[in-house]
Amino acid sequence: MVSSEREAELKILCERLGLCLHDTELLDRALTHASIQSELQGPSYDYESLEFLGDAVLSLAVAHHLFTHAPDRTPGEYSRMRARIVNQSGLARVAERIQIGPAIRLGKGEEMSGGRARAALLADCMEALIGSVYLDQGIDAAQDFIARVFAEELDSASQTDAGWDHKSRLQHYCQAEKIPLPRFELIRSEGPDHQKMFEVEVYIRGEAAGRGTGQSKKEAEQRAACAALEREGLLVR
């Protein structure tokens, strides 16, 4: 049983986070470090199993969000975007922002050594908290919670990879499809040096897949790659 004092503390936390959890013990478990077990007289538990579950739920929720809000990305891009969010420093940053640290129960030794501010511990509790929301409210509520508290990270990841250049995207696509890397061929360049125009053709699977022009060879290659991505159905304008 969770003490009335602890239950009141967790209720305040839920209200602040916009959560409506039925099982207070789940939340208490998510925010209990193993170091306190020797000092407790009540039930013995800690966040580690919930952390395992929360990690899986977070990974799925982030993948679903990115797939839905950035539908024209390659598998490699999705993996990079997710990795920017689902990592120890990112999780700890969110935990600090929503201020779950003060609600974590620690043993005296862990408390004195600064455990409450440790990134690894905060990240673990953040995942355990997500696991408790999932068990208590289901996947929809967990996804909604993640979308709210990770909104800044989700937006940042999407915007960062939005700038991923077309040539690199095309190369990663070819790697994922296990086909030879795209070959770029300069078709022609014309005009005076200060106003020269370049035209490039890109070949995939040995076939012309897109053509682009630009004031530099690099710009022409990017535009050719963009045309190839459109042709392959990977870029929607």
Entry keywords:
single chain; 237 residues; mainly alpha; Ribonuclease iii, N-terminal Endonuclease Domain, Chain A; Double Stranded RNA Binding Domain; 2 domains; three-stranded antiparallel sheet; 11 helices; elongated
Can you walk me through this structure?
The chain has 237 residues and is mainly α. The chain folds into two domains: 4-162, Ribonuclease iii, N-terminal Endonuclease Domain, Chain A (Orthogonal Bundle); 166-231, Double Stranded RNA Binding Domain (2-Layer Sandwich), CATH 3.30.160.20. 57% of the residues lie in helices and 10% in strands. The protein has a three-stranded antiparallel β-sheet, covered by helices on one side. Strand 2 and strand 3 form a beta hairpin. The chain is elongated and about 80 Å long.
CATH topology of the largest domain: Ribonuclease iii, N-terminal Endonuclease Domain, Chain A
Largest sheet: 3 strands, antiparallel
Which second-level CATH architecture of the largest domain applies?
A: Orthogonal Bundle
Strand content of the residues, in percent?
Answer: 5-15%
Helix proportion: 55-70%
**Tertiary shape:** elongated
